[in-house]
Amino acid sequence: AVLVASVILLAFALLGQDLLAALGIGLDAFRGAGGVMLLIIALDMVFEKRTPQRADRVNRGLDAEKTAQGDDISVFPLAIPLIAGPGAIASIMLYMTQYAGDWAARGVVLAALALCLLASLAAFLAAAWLLKVLGRTVTATISRVLGVVLAAMAAQFILDAVKGALG
After folding, report:
1. Least confident of 18-22, 60-64, 160-164
2. Separation between Cα atoms, residue 139 and residue 24, nearest integer Å
3. Pseudo-torsion of CA 152, 153, 158, 164, nearest 10°?
4. Of 14, 126, 37, which Cα lies nearest the Cα of 83?
5. pLDDT of 77-86, one tens digit each?
6. CA–CA dist 137, 143 (Å, integer)
7. What totals of helices (H) and strands (E) does the chain contain, helices first?
8. pLDDT in tens, 45-73
9. What's the sign of the alpha-carbon dihedral 26, 156, 9, 40?
């Protein structure tokens, strides 16, 4: 998930503004679409709506493995939109645009991105240990609380997109 997110964020850091412009997509539209995707994921977290197939994979600890249907959670929803989501993509594009021509400042932005991605990797590597230490009840509670926070973030992305489009 972190490797996929790294490639996506680096690509958007270097080419994102040009890509969105070529496709005629504004940053607000991108932010709004990402907000909708995050809201769907947040609602799944809060109400713990899982398909039987996904629940079975979680119970067997196979979340990161690719299934016969090609369902790989390391790409969606972990890499996109949770790590390389609309906020991260928009932020990296805005910072890289703000420091256009100043490669030293752009290097600092990319170094900060690398540190954030390393922190994400550390969190993923510690997840199994934390599940053992905290137990399923505590982790389910944390997941639901974080789902509410994620829903609020998603709503903010959507509101920012609407504000940007209207004003």
Report:
1. 60-64
2. 42
3. 120
4. 37
5. 889 888 998 8
6. 10
7. 5, 0
8. 999 876 555 556 555 555 545 554 557 88
9. negative
